[in-house]
Amino acid sequence: MERIVNQSLLNGLCNQGDDAIAVYNPSTQRIIGYVPSLSKSGIQEKIQSAKLAQREWQQKTAAERSLVLMRWYDLVIENANDLASIMTLEQGKPFAEARGEVMYGASFIQWFAEEGKRTYGDTIPTPASNKRIMTIKQPVGVTAAITPWNFPIAMITRKVAPALAAGCSCIVKPANQTPMCAYALSELALQAGLPKDLFCVVSNASSRLVGDIFCNDQDIKKLSFTGSTEVGRTLIKQCADTIKRTSMELGGNAPFIVFEDADIEQAVAGAIASKFRNAGQTCVCANRLYVHTTIYDDFVEKFVDAASSLVVGDGFDQEVSVGPLIDEKAKADVMSLLSGAVKEGAKLSLGGDELDGNFIPPTVLTEVTKNMSIVQEEIFGPIAPIIRFSDESDLLEQANDTQYGLASYFYTQNIQRAFRIAEKLEFGMVGLNEGIISTEVAPFGGVKQSGFGREGAKQGIEEYLNIKYICLGAIDS
Ligand code: SIN
Known about the structure:
The protein is α/β, with parallel strands linked by helices and 477 residues long. It contains 14 helices and 18 strands. The N and C termini lie far apart (71 Å). The site of succinic acid (SIN) has 10 residues, from loops.
């Protein structure tokens, strides 16, 4: 914690005690701090305060709200090194990557500070001469967000910034593994002049309890969740009683396809970036690589060569490009998928060794086949299974044969194939000759059991707005 220059970023922390949640450094597995575990009534009070604060906030003009958001953005940028240090401490990703996430997270604040001024309604040509028809957009009210540990800053700003820009308040329940980033962000928002209670963080040792409170509370009008499909499904069901709006960014099983006409160097670079970002712990990571049989050996050789140069270790070590998995359970789950694949006949072409702590080295599995569980399940770790294919339509069937539909990637130099495949992939996002597709300007989200709703882009703010239709009658009188 001595690394943090601006100690006010740690204001959300508390002392060790019965009501405290311990936060661990996944690299050292040591406790680095504690955050409060709020009681049920404490969380309900926060919701009531957020309701009162929102009533005033929605009266502000979009330009006034934008100014506050821009001050918040500036403070996040000014404190980027400290925020990145907190992230590396509690999440484990390498410091440079953590800094990258801080900038990515900040970009959503800047983007929505601007988009908030453009929430246009419509005037609609009238079907009756004495009537006029228009729509306006209004904030949905108090909103709640449940956010994951893999992007402890960007997944918060991607929800909170559009909510605030739209005139809503937002209560965030961060993952218990990474709450310190959330508290630091809310502290900076306060310092930027955001009225108290509009953006508040609530932590509790039981994520289920907070989920129950959020879903059942009549005053929360919208819930946004990023996490597993399993938990998303439960939350959707729980929100049914209060008919709450929801948006869900859930699991993925991204295919990464390399056609015989691809630029192999580009494809290798894209696959490395996509697969090993955050040690493979992203919903959009390449989960299964399909490589055309005529270039398979060449691709594998170059991919293994590139992956073997990645250094695993503590994210504060400058050489390190692959950090730890978030905790022991995550590591055990990934190792069990790996050993299952080897038992099923996959060949270990790189890595696979058992390291101490939460670390797993970049690992490449070859001669993988379509029925292996490593192909069916979201890996969430630095394991790259590579599958051969020879026929385009069979490949498409395999790529689409998953309950998930978040990200997909393919590499080709053939323009007809580029359009054909991009249109046929049943995923919300497609990287064409590109392994990193995330940006604040594009709509992030999935289809099928990867969820619904879009984050970022012009669409992201719509999730926090209701459309009101106004019919003006008797205009001739
Ligand atoms: C995620 O893994 O949930 C988000 C990844 C991203 O925004 O790039």
